[in-house]
Amino acid sequence: MQRMMNNAKYLMALAGAAFVLSAQAQLQVEISGVGSNQIPVAIGPCANQAAAPAQISDIIKADLTRSGMFKVIDITPTNNLMQVDATGLKSLGVEAVAACAVVPSVNGAFEVQYRLISTQGKDLSALKTAVPNQFARLAAHKLADDIYEKLTGIKGIFSTRIAYVVQQGKQYRLEVADADGENIIPALTSTEPIISPSWSPDGTKVAYVSFEQRKPVVYVQNLTTRQRVVIANEKGNNSAPAWSPDGKRLAVALSKTGNTQIFIANADGSGLRRLTNGTTIDTEPQFSPDGQSIYFTSDRSGGPQIYRMSVNGGDPQRLTFGSQYNISPRISADGKTLAYISRRDGGAFQLFTLDLESRQEQRLSDTTSDDSPSFAPNGKYILYATQNGGRRSLAVASTDGRVKQRLSIQAGNIKEPTWGPFMK
What we know:
single chain; Neuraminidase; five-stranded antiparallel β-sheet; 3 helices; Rossmann fold; mainly beta
């Protein structure tokens, strides 16, 4: 719960710089598919939740349902969390019961009490903490994260954030939102394109490419102070920023030498050094989780394919062979799975993953115009952009391909997504 308070401080500063968006800009979430083995969990309305500025239990239920991992069963609330009869629900196949209560407080805060009990009668988790009113949704996401982790052994991602670009007419907006599409906060508005946002590992900054100088330039922007610095404004194109895991470096694709190549710089733009030295195009760099390798797209084999090489240089290793067109590499946090966009099946651009050990490929999307994949920090979901009904929207697929979500807005196109890190 201390992480919740740290998140709250970050979001408070971020919210202070925000302006109000119209209702039509809110993200709409549609869910399809479920996990192969859903966990039955009973959740009742949070007792006295009218004392909180958000419906705590409704947010928890929505988070767990959206994950596809849980079968949510409604129960009657109780004001006394110590009297929850979890064992009585065992006959219904329920594995655990989550109960919560809200206690009104003062000075713009409320107290939330929470308990997670297995139907074997064992306490799995419990807490009691004060929550500032403006972070009621964050508190609910944190409770959903706790349920997810206690029942699956995997960290939940409901309290994480996403960033993306909205294009409405001639206006472009870089926005940050909760993983469920709520609490939208604008980071940058421009009449020129914004592309390739990339979260810093600590979640306080975003690197991106802006065309406001009538050419692509790489910036890093602090999301709390809104201050930003130019990281790469070399001759030609400056594109595709990607952070190192320790946040001390950025990989970028620059055409300053003629053909686009991969360079690495310090996080403030200093110390620029060239990594690749091919005569073809090398672009879309991504650091490996240990920071020792770079994944990138190159056409050195005749068509775009994905390669990996050491951050210290050397010979690149080709990784993709399943089709003649593979781009946009993203690597999971454990370094075991590569996500990318592959063109096949009559020209369709679709989301694929590659198990780097078994070399097994899997197609995760059934759409035909996908781009910009981004792993959730727990590695179990991938956010990407696609096209639906002639309009760009976002989608989420579980890495087993069973669960799918679509995030859209009523007007305009939403694209260039990136999933933020766990907040510390």
